[in-house]
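thread: overnight batch results

M.L. [08:02]
morning all. the overnight job finished for the chain we discussed friday. pasting input first so we're all looking at the same thing
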Amino acid sequence: MTAENIVQQVKQELQERKKNVITMQDLIKRNAEEYKKVLPKHMSAERMTRIFVTALSLNPDLEKCTKKSFLGAIFMCAQIGLELNIDGQAYIIPFYNSKKINGEWVKVYEAHFIIGYKGYITLFYNSPNSVSINMKEVYENDIFEYEYGTNAHIKHIPASKKNRGEVVYYYAIAKLKNGGELFHVMSKEDCIEHGKEHSKCWTTQIKDPKTGKMVNCDGHFMVNTPWAKDLDSMCKKTVLIQLAKVLPKSSEVHAALELDNTTKSIIAPNMLEIRDETNWNDEIKNEEIIDGKVA
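M.L. [08:03]
and the structure it wrote out:
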């Protein structure tokens, strides 16, 4: 089978999904009993089913994703115990992912699972060792001092609300039941650099308005992605993840750190056992998706 035939086959499959919206909804409902087995005890499979179906209506491009990757995403969400699009806990984002089929690179829509910073806060409070977690932005006109080491501390006095300037730092402080208190501080620039290195939302290509072709650029976060639409939230998430790495980990937080920012096309009782299929360094560069179309 030639590369052209493979591409045509993929396009035909995606067109069939687009015409039959109910197919993905049926997929969710038929698997409700299965993801019910991995849900935390306090969560209802019926409610999760409604949330997953609602997610389809909120983002029609999810219908273009392969069924297997979408099913993998909802199973990851169920295993961790977060609710899609509820208070910014978690999201399923369609990405145009590169796949090597019969030796040829092709592009298909796949569902990519992303946890929001409020999702990490929710999981922290679910831990039996947690007392509280506090997260703040630091503006350039605030009084702010911090130190790590044997004299670790943070001092933050906000400036007047009318004259605080731009955000320059983010920090998170966690208090534990054993009396421990840990914190982590990152500059806004460091958060953004971390996003460039670890997020699939960063691309070094852009569409040339004159030729219509993709050309190299200095780089930017793709539109309609969390890093482009809500930079503040993603910076907060970055700080929380770094803090979570040094906190006593519950099974849910451990799973979140492993499953966040992944694409999986196989379902299992433990989604941690399934490898991530996201192509971070493939031979075909990611193209930007604007309103469901490749730019």
